[in-house]
Design goal:
Elements: E1 3-7, E2 9-22, E3 29-42, H1 43-52, E4 57-63, H2 67-75, E5 80-85, E6 92-98, E7 101-108, H3 120-127, E8 131-135, H4 145-154, E9 160-163, E10 177-178, H5 182-188, H6 200-211, E11 215-219, E12 225-229, E13 236-238, H7 251-264, H8 269-285, H9 295-299, H10 314-323, E14 328-333, H11 340-350, E15 355-361, H12 363-370, H13 379-387, E16 394-398, H14 404-410, E17 414-418, H15 429-434, E18 438-442, H16 450-460
Helix pairs in contact: 1-7, 5-6, 7-8
């Protein structure tokens, strides 16, 4: 099912360099610019993240008929774009950084504009969504009455994640979750952090009743978030992992994108919120928006992941390898307490093609298959260990008991299992062969097992 992102798009420009002297004209630093990066911002960043993760995504927005609008279209390659005309210059936000320090930001075309019109095609795209993200950046699209009518009708049928803006309208009633940060939330109730309504829990309670949403998730940066749902007696804390992070730009967009994916997969909201907070922290730890590949270059074939480059974007890697004429190899398993048998099987699988993507059972999946005491190692650490191996190019975590759904999205040329399947077909054979793939086995090493390793560790603990 398609994810639809609705909202305002802007062109983000980053100028980076070093500042080693002051201007003779005024006591301000002179930045010697050494790098220029452009990307789609706002709702465009949310859509771009989802597309790079391999999700079918539609972006419903309005664009200006100018050079910035043309650049935005180029930077949204891979996204199905359903765009109306804003009638105004496209907003451009230019940030200047000296080393890791922000110096100044220039905003062009960012003044308030009238509520834009929406086309029938834009409304139809929203109506066909499996999940909707409203990324409101205060430019007026979220206030369009026709669009709000469609969103209000959909609110009881599909999950809607609403990321609000202080200059934007209130969410339509009934949306699945509204995701203000603590600053936006306190402004919305006209109460500072030191007032009676200043705590995140108190603010969430006020906004839940005012907005009549199904839930409010107030994010608090490195402190995580608090989640309050209709019917809850108290808000629940959603902790964030401790990470070394610099620029927080894009964390809210990453959280909204991840929430949509997890809700679309059928997770309940508390689980989806916990995973989304973790995903946002991982995004910042990996470098945030500055670490994202340039979409325009990737569309031209310059920046897509290639075999031999570790990536958390397995679908993008698979597409890149296929387009270059290579073979995509995939294997799967829990990989809890990795041992020599795992390494031998993975190494043998990698030699069969041009990249190896591991389909990894999530923690919930392992727990259902192996029992409540497993996994011993969480899915994020298991994925990190796998990606540290020279033979593994990407990891794709799946939540089902079997990998069929992941395989259907990945569509590898070769599916590999370790074990002795003589006289019987692999369980996934019919699915893999339906798109022309092959199923192969590599030698199984029965003397090495996670259970045996866990038992041995228990004896010495």
């Amino acid at each position: 099912m398609r994810i639809v992102v609705v909202g305002d798009v802007m062109l983000d420009v980053d100028l980076s360099g070093e500042a080693t002297r002051l201007s003779p004209d005024a006591p301000v630093p002179v930045v010697d610019v050494s790098g220029v990066r452009r990307r789609a911002g706002g709702a465009g960043l949310v859509a771009r993240m989802l597309a790079q993760d391999g999700w079918p995504v539609t972006l419903v927005t309005v664009l200006g008929n100018d050079d910035a609008g043309s650049q935005l279209r180029a930077h949204l390659a891979g996204v199905r774009l359903v765009a109306g005309t804003s009638g105004y210059p496209s907003p451009v936000k230019t940030r200047v950084r000296a080393g890791s320090h922000p110096v100044v930001r220039f905003d062009q075309g960012c003044e308030k504009t009238p509520v834009p019109d929406v086309s029938p095609a834009m409304l139809r795209a929203v109506e066909h969504a499996g999940v909707v993200i409203v990324a409101d950046y205060g430019r007026g699209l979220a206030a369009n009455p026709q669009l709000r009518d469609v969103l209000a009708r959909l609110a009881g049928e599909v999950p809607i994640i609403w990321d609000p803006h202080p200059s934007g309208p209130e969410p339509v009633p009934g949306v699945a979750v509204v995701t203000p940060n603590i600053s936006e939330a306190t402004k919305a109730v006209q109460a500072g952090p030191g007032s009676a309504a200043g705590s995140a829990d108190a603010v969430a309670e006020i906004l839940l009743q005012r907005w009549r949403s199904q839930a409010v998730l107030v994010t608090k940066g490195e402190e995580g978030a608090v989640l309050l749902r209709q019917g809850d007696t108290a808000a629940r804390a959603v902790p964030a992992p401790r990470v070394e992070a610099g620029d927080p730009c894009g964390a809210g967009d990453r959280l909204a994108a991840s929430l949509a994916v997890h809700l679309l997969a059928g997770r309940d909201l508390p689980d989806a919120a916990a995973l989304a907070v973790h995903d946002a922290a991982d995004f910042l730890a990996a470098g945030g928006v500055s670490a994202l590949p340039d979409t325009a270059d990737a569309a031209a074939g310059h920046s897509a992941p290639a075999a031999g480059r570790r990536t958390t974007e397995p679908l993008l890697l698979a597409r890149s390898v296929r387009e270059s004429g290579g073979k995509v190899v995939a294997t799967g398993g829990c990989f809890d307490l990795i041992h020599a048998g795992h390494i031998r099987s993975l190494t043998a699988a990698r030699e069969l093609g041009d990249c190896l993507i591991v389909c990894l059972n999530s923690d919930d999946s392992v727990r259902r298959l192996k029992g409540p005491e497993r996994p011993i190692i969480g899915q994020h650490d298991r994925a990190e260990l796998l990606l540290a191996m020279e033979c593994v190019d990407a990891v794709m975590v799946f939540d089902e008991d079997t990998p069929e759904a992941a395989l259907d999205r990945l569509r590898p040329d070769i599916w590999v299992k370790g074990g002795d399947y003589k006289g019987s077909r692999l369980p996934e054979a019919d699915l893999v062969e339906s798109w022309g793939g092959r199923c192969l086995t590599v030698p199984f090493h029965p003397a090495r097992s996670t259970t045996g390793l866990a038992d041995a560790l228990a004896k010495v603990s």
